[in-house]
Write a structure and sequence with these properties.
The complex is a heterodimer. By secondary structure, chain A is mainly α. Helix content of chain A is 73%, strand content 2%. The radius of gyration of chain A is 19 Å and the shape is globular. Chain B is elongated, with a radius of gyration of 24 Å. Chain B folds into 2 domains: 200 residues, Response regulator (Rossmann fold, 3-Layer(aba) Sandwich); 145 residues, Response regulator (Rossmann fold), CATH 3.40.50. The chains are: A mainly alpha, B alpha/beta. At the A-B interface, helix 1, strand 2, helix 8, helix 9 and helix 10 of A face strand 7, helix 7, helix 8 and helix 9 of B.
Amino acid sequence: MWDQILQFLITGVTVGATYALVALGFAIIYNASDVVNFAQGEFVMIGAMTAIALSAGDGGLPLPLALIGAVLITIAVGILLQRFAIAPARGASVVTTIIITIGASIFLRGVALLVWGKDIFAMPHFSGEIPLHIGNATLLPQNLWVMGGAALLVMGVHYFFNHTIIGKAILACSCNRTAAHLVGINVGLMMLVAYGLSAFLGAMAGILVAPITFTSYDAGVMLGLKGFSAAILGGMGNPMGAVAGGLALGLIESLAAGLISSGYKDAIGFIILLLVLFIRPSGMFGKVSAERV
Amino acid sequence: MNIRKTMTALAVSTLMSLTAAQALAADTIKVGSFLAVTGGASFLGDTELKTLQMYVDEVNAKGGIDGMQVELIHYDTGGDSKKAVNFAKRLIKKDQVDVIVGGSTSGTSMAVIDEVESEGIPFISLAGSVKIVEPVKKWVFKVPHTDRMAAGKIFEDMKKRGISKVALISGDGGFGKSGRGETLALAPEYGIEIVADESYGAKDTDMTAQLTKIRDTDAQAVLNFGFGTGPAIVTKNVRQLGITIPLYQSHGVASKKYIELAGDSAEGVRLPAAALLVADKLADADPQKPVLVAYQTKYEAAHGAVSTFGGHAFDGLYIALEAIDRANSTDKAKVRDEIEKTTNFIGTGGIFNMSATDHLGLGLDAFKMLEIKNGDWTLVE
């Protein structure tokens, strides 16, 4: 029984770490501009797909270089998305901007479909596929990569927002855009940085999990939804809450599948999400919002 | 010119053009089709349409059927059942086709049944569900194998190996759900006990939780009914957890892509599949071999790797055309009767023997049991 639960926990943390990275991407853009970027899942897909494309074939790059290239390309996509789709709609309401991001996600998926087709792709594991044993539970070296990578990225993002001037400037934009502008913060540039950072996190999530999960042009849809749920669960706008939400969602799913019923694991996840929202509408760690007058 | 003369001339010319039109109509056989060429099921419709076009061209190049040319009229449903119904109506009423070969998905095929039954037009479906022809409907036929046959073939193989306790894990999409239902319904007939019944979402990324539960049952084999990434992840997770009992997959993974994705983990996995997948490995005496090799060569020369789905379109088209040939007419009732009389038709899916009670006409032998060895399919005898 305890062996089983240990296995469920390992699975839950691995899956949860992926959700956490996607949720973190949601939280960063939401923090900077109050917009929920529904193209976040597509960043994950583009990261994984470009890494595979760059390393494929005999003329392909070695895996580490391909991964770096994929991350850079995804960041570029994020910045271009902000510059050419979000920025021109500056004056538009938040809802309009959210609709633009939904359009962007469909567009990016379409481009991926045209470039790579409908096939499913696999990526080699970073350090082999020989499972490690903890008691009767097993995990792959790649699980450690996912957990470790996610932990480092989360700490990095935490440091960035609390201890660097750019991070604080982005937070300032989210508190009050006009005031931030008045004290000399380049709001437009900060938005670019926020989208670039979100795309970076998405790409990292994509390349860390792709060896385990495979990827295809539509792989971002489900991850985007789960990441969004995680961000809501943790409290939209609180980056660390998003991480907690991601881990919680991963663990709930895994434990529900293992201990209750695999058929209802998604339903159980969403019921808990709804319950949290009934009790704390701003999520587990969200600030209770007050209407500004 | 007086009025009467004008009228006569008009009448004559109308009559003449009418007969000309009729003669023209009699010169073509109209095959209607609606397929999911775009959308989520496009991997079915795309190859089916290419196959239909390719073979309609070939038949016409060889002089047609009884001197009549074949015309293919096709609409893309995108996998949408509502569109399928509208297109079926258009094919019947506006295009006045003689026979319909199409319906890539079970949903679109089921949706048009009422229409073809009430209009009385032969319809050969290219979709998997056994419900399309069970109970038997007068005008509806189908050519692909059913998931019930796949489950039967798997159980047959399990019994040979002395396996009686099976853990089932299935995807929650249409294919997995239907396969799960058939598996549960069929297991008692083979004396097999299903000791675990787990499921996973179509886009889930990890199934170790479900498989950990399965590991702790007394199952002697794992059976996975699913499609897409799911089965490949299940296969990898099974190996990761150190589960050593045999793993069976369904015909849903019968493509090289599955071996590529699951890699070394796929070694030793068994699955039922259409003979097309192993055409070159069949014995030379196998009656299906020439048909399969011919289809594979022709398709691969034009479009790249074959899939069994395109093969279904080939089977459906030729069963329809041969029935029209035997009927010596495009009279719908006669063609229907001839389709029902199809015997010993050697297609890509198997050898078809239809009857008034069986509008599919394939036996379990239409499936071959395969095992993956050294990254390639091998036939299990």
